[in-house]
Amino acid sequence: MPKTLKTFPGNKLRGQTHLPGDKSISHRAIILAALGNGQSQIENLLVAGVTQPMLQALDQLGLDTNLEGTTLVVNAAGVEGLRIPNTPIFCGNSATTMRLLAGALAAVGLPAILDGSDGLRRRPMARIVDPLWEMGVPIRARGEGGTAPLDLAPRVTDRSLRGIKHHPPVASAQVKTCLLLAGLAADDTVTIHEPAPSRDHTERLFASLGLNIERLENPDGTVTVSLHPADEWELPPLQLALPGDISSAAFLIVAALTTPGSAITLRDVGLNPTRTGLLDALQAMDANLEVQPRGERHGEPVGDITARYSKLQGTEIADPLVVRMIDEMPIFALAAAHAQGQTLVRDAEELRHKESDRITALCAELQTLGVNIAETPDGFTIQGGTSLTGGTVQSHGDHRLAMTLAIAGLNAQSPVTVHEADIITESFPNFAATLRSLGASLAGKE
Ligand code: S3P
Fold first, then answer.
1. CA spacing 20 to 30 A to 269: which of 22, 260, 278, 299?
2. Each residue of 8-45: pLDDT tens digit?
3. Which of 301, 302, 298, 294 is nearest to 240 (CA)?
């Protein structure tokens, strides 16, 4: 991926494509394969910047792995087969890696130091450290204000962790998954009461492994997830073929909806309802979208999505829809910029704690391209329907912002140049090639 990416207006998008494997399921599958007993095989794994540290961590834990293309084979021998990492585990920019590994290491009781990039060292970790501590995990955040590095001391492995009833103030699948992983070694039920439904891939995978897990959607919109741990836990190996990532599909969908003359089909995309908020939001904006379900694979719904150029209308987004499209807010903002009328996003303060402060950074860069967008404490408002000017913008070290800005160049008065665009390899390494294969015009410069 070139350092600078320039996208040109004027070409319509046509054809069909597949997406790289789902990022969230990839992380969970790698960890569960590592904790399992036997040979796991994961096909269509996301092989990208965000999963590299997780694979590296498996090496440090002494696991025998083999990655060929996007197929990962892990030979694991349960908890006994893992060794203490003799150097800190570097989680790169990936908060998912850090939070999920903390939960898994808590369950196996191995000491480790989890560290990451400067960006990751700024992300909030007290949200996992505090409840893990309450469960009896000897973990401390060494950074200022509850941030990384995280230090896990050895746990007396024949002593169980405690069960917990946790009420996180913000719905977070990473927090939930961290506690569920730690909960494998708990002596009592681990319950997470979420204010809104966050992605439920962990619950689905746990159920497919035969674990005793319940997920209850309550009448008030909250969700209660409970893991009833077994006395002795041993996980079977996994055999999975992962769906395409709907969060990557999102960029191509909005590209087609906002570029005149476009019609594209995305095959074999994950359609888990906790992840499809963007599709609902776009449909409410009169997007011409066709979703063709193709059944379930390993408990996850998959299907094809066709998106055609559409005259979009402004809309309003608030909880709980925000949680179902939390990673799609940057590209959603671009759709709103092309829509007639006003769009309002609220209840999305959590965007300030992602790879960048996604409210401030998004508003600044879209304003550079002539979008009438204004920041609010918990979201933004957009007066849409005016054409984008083109120009030169920055990724802020955020892969989803970089891809959004690149897509903006496909329908603007002049090209868009995105600096530090190589960050896109974090989640969608073949982004430029995929766009080009659908007819877009792009140029890269080192
Ligand atoms: C993820 C959960 C979300 C999401 C992230 C992946 C996961 O984060 O933004 O990209 O795989 O569980 P939070 O749990 O912080 O909301």
1. 260
2. 999 999 999 999 999 999 999 999 999 999 999 999 99
3. 298
Structure tokens given for 62: 């002494």
For the full predicted model, state whether its pTM sits above 0.90. yes
- Catalytic, 327? Answer yes
Taking a C-beta distance cutoff of 8 angstroms, is the pair 281, 309 a contact? no
Cis peptide before 197 (omega within 30 of 0): no
The answer to whether the CB of 409 falls within 8 A of the CB of 9 is: yes
Write the residue with the smallest CA distance to atom 15 of ligand 1. 172
pLDDT digits (tens, 9 = 90+) for 266-281: 999 999 999 999 999 9
**Banded pLDDT at 157 (limits 50, 70, 90):** low
98 within ligand 1 shell (Cβ under 6 A)? no
Mean of the per-residue pLDDT values of the chain: 97
Query: Is the beta carbon of 321 within 6 A of some atom in ligand 1?
Result: no
Residue 174, ligand 1, Cβ within 6 A: yes
- Write down all domains in the chain, each with its CATH number in brackets: 4-20+243-445 (3.65.10.10), 23-149+165-230 (3.65.10.10)
